[in-house]
Amino acid sequence: MNILFAASEAAPFIKTGGLADVAGSLPAVLAAAGHDVRVVIPLYEQIGEDWRSQMTYLTNTRVRLAWRDQYCGLFELKRDGVTYYFIDNEYYFRRWDIYGHFDDGERFAFFSRAVIQLPAMVDWPVDILHCNDWQTALVPVYLLEEKYRIPQLGGARSVFTIHNIEYQGRYDKFVLKDVCGLDESYFNEHMLAYHDDVNLMQGAIFAADAVTTVSPTYAMELQDSFWAHGLEGVVRANSYKLQGILNGIDVERNSPKGNKAIAKSFYPTRMTGKAECKAALQQMVGLTPDPEVPVIACISRLVNHKGFDLVVQALGGIMDLDVQMVVLGTGEARYEEAFRAAQGLYPGRFSAQIMYSAPLSTAIYAGADLFLMPSISEPCGLSQMIAMRYGTVPVVRETGGLKDTVIPYNKYTGEGRGFTFSRTSPEDMLWVLREAVELYRTDKKAWKALQKAGMTADFSWGASAERYLELYRQLLG
Question: For residue 294, is the peptide bond before it cis, meaning its omega torsion is within 30 degrees of 0?
């Protein structure tokens, strides 16, 4: 199959979140299965010279966007069996950041038009056009018309993946004609019209041949108003073409075995290196060196939907468990201030690392004993899977991909991979943390079994990629 994967970001070239990890991992697995897979993203200013020096300029064209006629350059880079295309337009993509601009709607409408024109630019017939989140939501809409005008799109089927429904691409209805270049027939409740606005994600859900999201539980949650942010009716109306396919992780990169980025390598049958990683972590972040005290870790954006209200409310109770805690991340000022205050209140026991550091995050995954992830909403989540790969036992709220990946510990059978709670309650979170800490201190055999279960679980892209391929085959008959 010829598969074109369109996204607003892709690792390792440019990354702000989990979408980039998917766009940087899934295509390579699909290509390894023998398919011609190509990925297209914008050529942002933030993409460094180390990558630009490896790119080849291919061609350029003009992209019509309503009354605008814009330059569109095309660069190519081949890596891991995948062809990556970069759409060049400095007016739209030479910015101080990749998101957060007043004209983001126009910027990504241009990108979506460019994606549609790409197959003709390189004379490559597309079978599957796989789009992701609101930034590429116009691609399935444009495909409805352009597949009859562009021969290379004549047999294409579209897939739209929702990574986070909270961000929908909602704009004033004037953008329909003035920016998107679409006539008024698209402004209806079964396409782009949403409460007298234009909603790009809604349009993609209706226009795409198939809709996926990043975990089975999240696919069910999106049909409920609590999680769907107003689109629950749209999701329910299209539930016949919706399925949840769990994201994977790069299991080789996220492995403590032979990993030179951590203090000491270890693996499920030889865990002695984890103690050295713990000692190194304690020294690195200013925690009192103590091999016996359990270390609880959080690595996250410090925002409300990640459950940090629960953490702040329960912080005193957590520290009363005689534990150490390290938090890595940035976000809302109220959480940053609360964690800085906790560091002053619990010197040597609480460490607030208000930053983002990839090397430090790896050290935390490898050295911590428990990984706390109390998200209110979590479409898939990668951190809990990475933590388990490093033998760090997760404590999570049962939502989205957290529910699908963390099997709760059963003290009667010994089964499980971590600890879970269901209510958005600081008391419930504290209760399971207390259970986890007690098990850590009183039953080392059961604790090691939990670690081994997480470390040996299959979180690779293999099974997920096969589900995507099966979906593609069904669409193509």
Answer: no
d(CA 438, CA 424): 22
How far apart CA 369 and CA 140 sit, in angstroms, is 45
Which architecture characterizes domain 2-248+462-476 according to CATH? 3-Layer(aba) Sandwich (3.40)
pLDDT digits (tens, 9 = 90+) for 219-242: 999 999 999 999 999 999 999 999
272-456: CATH, from 1.10.8.60, 3.40.470.10, 3.40.50.2000, 1.10.275.10: 3.40.50.2000
In terms of pTM, does the model score above 0.85?
A: yes
CB 123 within 8 A of CB 155: no
Please write the tens of the pLDDT for every residue from 30-71: 999 999 999 999 999 999 999 999 999 999 999 999 999 999
pLDDT tens column, 414-453: 999 999 999 999 999 999 999 999 999 999 999 999 999 9
DSSP assignment, residue 355? S
Residues 138/109, Cβ–Cβ less than 8 Å: yes
Helix, strand, coil percentages in the chain from 3-state DSSP, rounded to 5: 40, 20, 35
Helical spans, DSSP H, in 406-461: 426-442, 444-456
Of the CA atoms within 13 Å of residue 433, those in its CB half-sphere come to: 30
DSSP string, 92-148: HH-SSSSS--TTHHHHHHHHHHHHHHHHHHHT---SEEEEETGGGTHHHHHHHHHTT
CA 242, 244, 245, 250 dihedral sign is positive
What single-letter DSSP state applies at residue 397? E
Quickly count: other Cβ atoms within 10 Å of residue 347's Cβ: 11
Cα Rg, the chain, nearest whole Å: 23
Residue type, 403: K
